[in-house]
Every structure is written in structure tokens, then in C-alpha cells.
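User: I'm preparing a small set of examples for a lab meeting where we compare how different chains pack in three dimensions. I only have the primary sequence for this one, and I'd like the structure in C-alpha cell form so I can line it up with the others. Please keep the answer compact; I'll paste it straight into my notes.
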Amino acid sequence: MIRAARIRIILMVLVGAGFVPARAHAQRLFGNVVLTDDQTPARAAIVTAADSAGAIAGRELTTARGDFVLPVPHPGKYTVTVLRLGSLPETVRDVVVEPGRDHRMKIRISRDAPRLPSVTVRSGEQCNMSEDAGSLGYTWSQFLIVLATVEMAADARSFSGTWLRTERRLDKNLRDTVFRSDSLEAIALEAPMMPSISADSSRKAGFVIESEQGVLYHTPSAATLASRDFLARRCFSFDPAPVGQPGWTGLHFRSSEFRIGVVDIEGTLWFDRETLEPRGLGFRYVNLPPAFDGAESGGTLRFRQLPTGHWIVEEWTLRVPAGVYRRIFSYDQRGSLNGYAMKLALDGIRIASLRLMDLELNGSPIFKRQP
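Assistant: Understood. Below is the C-alpha cell output for the 371-residue chain.
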């Protein structure tokens, strides 16, 4: 079992601390990471160094040869942590870095991660990850590793892509398309892809917010999904494989709280059982007005690993209702008008999608979608 303390450590390493800037010509930690056989390079592993005060001094993704180089800002003792999808975390403590000197390391990942269960019905829920995370919490921590590389790709500010943006609107019968537009847009990975909201704001106000600009529907961003708050306020369970994907297992999540007037999300994150690689995430909005029940409002995210080892969200979709207030008249027994009331009704659906078509790293092509 993976205890809650382990999850807290992973959260801290991935998203909980800022980096200490390194000085020019500073001492470095460098070396390589290998798998359990002590020979195979551990590609796309996150190597993080924290100083004796717990501050994150550096973070890097290993190369195809398992190599890493981490400049550190000052000499002293460091704790080096390696996180890799499909493996249990590896920690090396009390790594001494002397003034002005480099410290070479070889780190062996000694434990493979347990594979996900194959279930035929939804499993029992775990709603308090602060007590005992178990296999459900560990599975989510594997997803946090993926989200960390998503963040690292954005922080690098070196990736730019061409995305196909599609906007559609269905009329109130939810079948006929009354509007459609397609456009190609150049967007860097660090730019916002879809309307999103911070973890703190989603906790306070939910994912659907009414403002002077109208009703705004937000998607869960990588930062929101990776936050401690999102984990703490969710119940998790395993879902059986979807039709046509017998090798997948789902990690279902829902809010553990119900608040009147606050719209949250519920969804399932799909993993390949053998590799633990995420395939996609589907979610729906919970606690919308009853008039929107037939709209199936929500969205999807699809994940892809780049040749560099980073993961990104390669496709987003968002499906939200369009509403209208209609007058409902009432009459007395003689047929005279008593008055009217305004009633919210579903008036169609808006569907937005964003799909990566090609991607460049520092101007060099690294991905192109096949026609």
C-alpha cells in the first residue's frame, strides 16, 4: 500500500515548491538513471533535488539515455528524488555537493509499480486520502507524474504548435448543426488552451461561474488536477474498461461535497493497465439546473507523450448548454390570464474542440498529425 505521506511528498516535489535559481558556473548534480536491471536507461524520469531546508533546487527530465544535469545554487546536502511513470519513487538522501564541484550519480530504480486491477463493476470508494491512500491514491500519484511533465513542457517555453479549433452549435433538438467554424491557430504550450480556473477558485466557486460576461464554463487544467485541494475533496474508485478497450482501467472521481448552487465536475481518468500511461479523461458538470439534464454537459482531454518524454494534452473538447428563459402563462378557470413566470429551458448546445496538428521544439518539427 502507498501511504498518504508518500502522496504528500510527490505533491510537494511536483507542484508544491518553487525552484531556487542557480548561479552561473555553480556546482551540479549529474549522472544517469537506470531501471531495475541496472542497465536499461530510465527515459523520461523526473529527477528533483531538494536542499536541506526542503526547497526545490532543480528539476529535469532524463534523456533517452537516462542522463540528467541539475545545477544547484549552493553546496550542501541534497535529497534527490526520481519519479517515473510505471515505477515506485526512488529517493537518495544526504547527497553531499562540495563548493564549486560537480557530483556524479547513478540511480537505479529498484521497484516497478503494481499494475492496475481489472474490474467488472465500479469498485468501492476512497474519500479520505489523508488517512490511507492505497492503490487508488497511488494510481492518482502516477497521474501526477504525467501532469508534472505537462507543466515542465509549458515552463520550458520552447514548444509551439498549430491547433485546429472547431466551434459548433446544435439547435434545441440537439441534432441539427446551426453554426460551425474551423480555424488553425498557432499556440505555444504555455498559453491557456481552454477556459480554466485555479484550484482555489474551483473550490470556492465551482467550475461554472456567472459573471457580467455571461455564464462561463471552465475545464480542469493540469494545475488544478495536480493540486492538493483537488485530491483532498474527491472520492475515487476504479471503473471497468470501456467498450472496445479491454486493456484499460478507469479511475473515477467525484466531489465528496455537495454545495447548493455550486457546479463541480465528476469524471473518469483512463489508464493502460500494463504501462500505466493515461489515455484520456472524460468529465461532466454536476449540479447544473435540471433544464440542462439532457445536454450531457462536460468535456474530454486526450494525452500524448512527445519524443522528448514530456506529456501534453493533445486534444480538448467542451460541451456546454445554451439556455433561454421562456414565459409560462397561467390562466384561471374562465380562461383569463392570471400572469406568467419565467422558466429556464435548454436552447441548444455549444461544442468547442482544440486538436494539435503539429508541434515544434525551438523551431524544429517534432510531431505532425497524419491526415
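A couple of notes for your slides: The two ends are 45 Å apart (CA to CA). The chain has a mean pLDDT of 89.

User: Perfect, thanks.
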